[in-house]
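A note from the maintainers: we've had questions about how concatenated examples are separated. There is no special marker in the raw files; a new sequence line simply starts the next protein. For clarity in this README we add a label.
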Amino acid sequence: GVDGNGYTLIVDTVNGWPMPANGLVFNGGGSNGVDTLRLEGPLIASLVTTTVARASAAQIVASSNAGNRTIYALGTEEVVDGLRAETRRTVFGAGNDQVTLSGSSNLRIASPLIALNSRPATSVFSLALGEGSDVLHVESFPTAALTSLTISGEAGADIILGGRAGDTIYGDDVSASHADLDGEDIVLGDNGTITLSVGVTGRLNLAN
């Protein structure tokens, strides 16, 4: 994909992991076109963690009974995670991220850095926005498939728009003490109850 055209790499797990134990690197290359990494197949993962540290780059770590695999997606505008997973976790790095969470049958996370699409986790999904003054807009998510959704703003002055019933939103870093809030966080709710946990040194404004 280094010629700048749009390419799609499909990782099909129908016969297990089609890659060595030390993982896989997919380089979509230039800025022209939309390069996509697509994971699919019947393999069941206990945990899939996707880390987005910079634009068009992601690291996907999948743990399963067929072994653990790490996939690096570079110069990639979209990741489609079609694996069957019990738990999914998406982590953004330091920076002022603009993120939109949406979906009904699938879960979509969109930002200027990258677009992530995944089938709903069977039980647990968490999103960590990382350090920086982040804005998260929760448009919708597939509540029928999820039993737990955790959104962590982490350090910085974060704004979270449009939560739903039963969400847990952390204004600070996720830790045992929850006492290291850095900045003022704002949560704008929707219908239902939102459970909030913030550091003892910070402030949180709630509008419903």
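[label: protein 2]
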Amino acid sequence: AEESTAERRQLDLRITAGLFSQVRTHVEDFTRGEEAGFLICGVNRLDETEVLLAREWVPVPENALYRNTSGSVLSWSAEFNSSVIERALTTGAAPVLVHSHGSPRPTFSDDDRLNERMLFGTISRLVSPAPAGTLLLGDGAADGSFWLDGQNCLRFRRLVILADTIETWASVVSGPQCTVPRSRLSRQNAAIGPARDRKSTRLNSSHIT
């Protein structure tokens, strides 16, 4: 019964137009290649929907970002990753990774999916009961994948931009079914995040491995 309830749950992300402008300005600037950052979001849990309200934008600084030769983001420093998790834990917030491929109809790449499984399976357990996930921006549409307590089981429904006139970016795909992430080789995990993050006082020694 627990699994079927989780499968039905959907997720909306709400953001003010001013904050969204900051996000787009950063992630849609491909001068040096792909850019990325995290939204730190408050969580409102309704009967069948997780509603995230973006509070803060934390771009990955250039000196913490690692790209491949084509300019795609591969990873960022352990120190930056730790700071984002601590920010989320301090306020009970949900961390959401945001980037763009510069495509109007966004689709996660194979690398995106691999990195997501390695990163958010663990992060979503650390920040539980808040969710965690990733958002890929297009133009008037978005793709999202969200995790709750180690499972990729929240269906991203829409991105809502709050201004005098409310704008909605719908999901380009239907969401995943619940899946339990498989263990990965430690050398793969080291490529995307830290090996020594902790869940503050709630977990004495939780590691991203």
